[in-house]
Specification:
InterPro entries: HAT, HAT_PRP39_C, Nucleotide-bd_a/b_plait_sf, RBD_domain_sf, RRM_dom, SART3_RRM1, TPR-like_helical_dom_sf. With 740 residues, the chain is of the alpha+beta class. The protein contains 28 helices and 10 strands. The radius of gyration is 48 Å and the shape is flat.
Length: 740
């Protein structure tokens, strides 16, 4: 682009040529059509018509079977023949029609109708049969074509299904065209190229077609070692000249594989090719020397180039050296060279593996002599660390078959000595592992104890700060059944206030009682305030100034200085405190403010406590499953048609926002004066008929005791179980709830 902008056409031409060498352009119907139409311009030259026809035939061979775009190429070819029509060339047009109608292409009906008009003697029976078969194949392929039409590029999955279908049908030409169509949009998918080249290698076996496809594959995906390996095999299979195979191998080495083992595998493929070229009956042949030179070059390449790039050679088991040693032993009868190679293999960290020694032993057993077999096994007994028992057994078996009594005694002595050392090492290793395990267990136990101590310390500190949380005292149930609501909140750990506190707690939390004489009768406890309230002292003074003179507001904060959501307000006289109690449930910052008397429980142990309601609350229902953004006004509008509404209340969290149930819903509670629960039931008996008492406080219902005249006798001190035995009291319920 830069060269074109600068007008450097000569350099631009070279750059385009270089790009075309490195990055191939996938063939397609559009390109072939453009090329054929371009060639028509030269038909006036000598041999021009033959040249145009040749190009059209090449185009039809390449993409004439393209089901959606092939028809355009056939029509262009016919138009060319019609343009130069003569009496002698009329048969050419008939032939083109017949060839096209035998191929399943879109809009076959139009082509058939056009041919019917063209043929003066009607469509031949044979052409009709071919046309019908092609139309049937088109109908079978139509779902795959429609899937390609509606899918987004690169449509790999759709093409894979189409390819499998065509391969099952078994028409090589159609398999080839669908592969080409798929590669046009997925030219950088190595697996697709591998599948295509494998099909061509095993089915078509046409040299030019196979090698061309392999070359395109490695040009599109040069980083894929498997494609280069298949290319080398295809070149050898089709008898390519040696220098061509060598050139392809050199290109593969420069392709830039992504792992060291890829280089090992491509070297193995090339060495296999060179080995197959050698006639081992001819001593000192040029091919043998070339093979040995290639083995040496391979080892150097892996040690230098590959190891420098990947920090490993990729051939940890020295597979290439093993193959070289076996070739020297088997074909060249050169055991000296084979032993040198195996010595080198063992020095590369393989001497501790039993399988490596046994591989060398088998080589000596096949092509060497007994003396070298015995020597190899003795070395294996001394060096093997993974399976020493197996190597010892092989040595003893060998001496039973080959050795003398002296050889047997030496073998027994060496194997026993070696196995004793191995057992001692294993015992020491086991003891070390056991010690490490015990140390780890001790560390785990220490961590567990430290965690338990820390937890106990936190629990103790929490117990010492129990004054931070105060117990509610209101024993007269108001219209909201505050006892029941509070029990819900305490059970869930959501309440943040308790109006009855001890004097020591108030001294601890406020830190100000020592400076001013405190009177509980002149004070109120304010809770359920927003934790994010700014300047709570000034805010509360503004709220309670109308009740009387505010002497002091004492907000309670955490150790980090965060507002706890409650405070104490002290007035000048008791009358002002009584007026302040009337502000209970007044909304402050979109939250109902709770105002209650301030009572010192250390001096008034019988102060009022919660009494939990255990009966059905028929004038109240609980609604959940409302949208998150539902407001109080919308809820009133929803329910007012069923009766008079006394009050509606949305349950909010500490920040004053509606509570979320199951992430997307809020809960609401309201009281109706003339409303029965059944009005809101969708079907049968709903869950709103149960008490709002927490599940932990539910008990089996008890028949109400009756007096002799049939009136109900209410029990004030507790609940009986029907047999006169006193059950849990309200205070017991409270303790149970707080415990949970």
């Amino acid at each position: 682009k830069l060269l074109r902008q600068e007008g450097k056409l000569h350099r631009l031409r070279k750059a385009r040529q270089k790009m075309s060498e490195l990055f191939p352009l996938t063939e397609g119907p559009d390109i072939w059509l453009e090329f054929a139409q371009y060639s028509i311009g030269g038909m006036g030259a000598e041999g021009g018509i033959s040249r145009v026809r040749s190009i059209f035939e090449r185009a039809l061979t390449a993409v004439g079977l393209h089901m959606t775009k092939g028809a355009a190429l056939w029509e262009a070819y016919r138009e060319f023949e019609i343009a130069i029509l003569s009496t002698l060339q009329l048969e050419r047009i008939h032939t083109l029609f017949r060839r096209q109608l035998a191929i399943p292409l879109l809009d076959m009906e139009g082509t058939y109708a056009e041919y019917s008009d063209w043929a003066e003697q009607g469509v031949p029976e044979m052409v009709m049969q071919h046309y019908k078969r092609a139309a049937q194949h088109l109908e079978k392929s139509r779902p795959y074509e429609e899937a390609l039409l509606v899918s987004e590029p690169p449509k790999l999955a759709e093409y894979q299904g189409y390819i499998d279908y065509e391969m099952k049908e078994g028409d090589p030409a159609r398999v080839q065209i669908i592969f080409e169509r798929a590669l046009a949009e997925n030219c950088l998918v190595p697996d697709l190229w591998a599948k295509y080249t494998t099909y061509l290698d095993r089915q078509l076996k046409i040299k030019d077609l196979v090698l061309s496809c392999h070359e395109r594959g490695v040009r599109n995906c040069p980083w894929t070692m498997g494609l280069w390996k298949s290319y080398l095999l295809a070149l050898e299979r089709h008898g390519a000249e040696h220098h061509i195979v060598s050139d392809v191998f050199e290109k593969a080495l420069n392709a830039g594989f992504i792992q060291a083992t890829d280089y090992v595998e491509i070297w193995q493929s090339y060495l296999d090719y060179l080995r197959r070229r050698v006639d081992f009956n001819k001593e000192g042949s040029r091919e043998l020397e070339e093979l040995r030179s290639a083995f040496s070059r391979c080892l150097d390449y892996l040690k230098q180039d590959v190891e420098e790039r990947f920090s490993e050679s990729g051939d940890l088991s020295c597979t290439i050296m093993q193959v070289w040693a076996r070739i020297e032993a088997l074909h060249c009868k050169n055991m000296q060279k084979a032993r040198e190679l195996w010595d080198s293999i063992m020095t590369k960290g393989n001497a501790k593996y039993a399988n490596m020694w046994l591989e060398y032993y088998n080589l000596e057993r096949s092509y060497g002599d007994a003396a070298h077999c015995r020597k190899a096994l003795h070395r294996a007994v001394q060096c093997t660390t993974d399976y020493p028992e197996h190597v010892c057994e092989v040595l003893l078996t060998f001496e039973r078959v080959e050795g003398s009594l002296e050889d047997w005694d030496v073998a027994v002595q060496k194997t026993e000595s070696r196995l004793n050392r191995v057992n001692e090492q294993r015992v020491k290793a086991a003891e070390k592992e056991a010690l490490i395990a015990r140390q780890e267990e001790d560390r785990v136990e220490q961590r567990r104890k430290a965690k338990a101590d820390k937890k106990a310390q936190k629990k103790s500190q929490k117990t010492n700060r129990t004054g931070d949380k105060r117990k509610a005292e209101d024993d007269v149930e108001d219209e909201w059944g505050e006892e029941t609501e509070m029990s819900h909140k305490r059970h869930r750990g959501e309440d943040n206030f308790s109006p009855a506190v001890s004097e020591e707690q108030m001294e601890t939390e406020s830190g100000l009682f020592g400076r001013r004489q405190r009177k509980d009768s002149n004070s109120v406890f304010v809770s359920n305030l927003s934790f994010t309230m700014e300047e709570p002292e000034a805010k509360m003074k503004a709220v309670f100034n109308a009740c009387g003179t505010v002497v002091e507001v004492r907000p309670v904060y955490t150790a980090k200085g965060a507002f706890r959501g409650y405070c104490y307000v002290q007035f000048e006289d008791e009358l002002a405190a009584q007026e302040a109690l009337k502000l209970d449930r007044v909304e402050v910052d979109a939250r109902p403010m709770y105002v209650s008397p301030c009572v010192d429980k250390s001096k008034n142990p019988d102060s009022k406590i919660f009494k939990y309601n255990t009966s059905m609350e028929k004038h109240k229902i609980f609604i959940s499953g409302l949208p998150y953004t539902y407001t109080k006004e919308q809820l009133e509008e929803l329910c007012k048609e069923h009766g008079g509404i006394k009050a509606v209340r949305l349950v909010t969290n500490r920040a004053g926002k509606s509570k979320v149930i199951h992430n997307l819903y809020i809960s609401a509670m309201y009281i109706c004066t003339k409303l029965t629960v059944q009005h809101f039931l969708y079907r049968g008996k709903g869950r709103t008929q149960v008490s709002l008492l927490p599940r932990s406080l539910h008990r089996q219902s008890v028949p109400e005791a009756k007096t002799e005249n049939g009136t109900t006798a209410k029990q004030q001190d507790g609940i009986t179980d029907g047999q006169g035995t006193k059950s849990l009291s309200n205070e017991d319920f409270a303790r149970m709830l707080l415990k949970k």
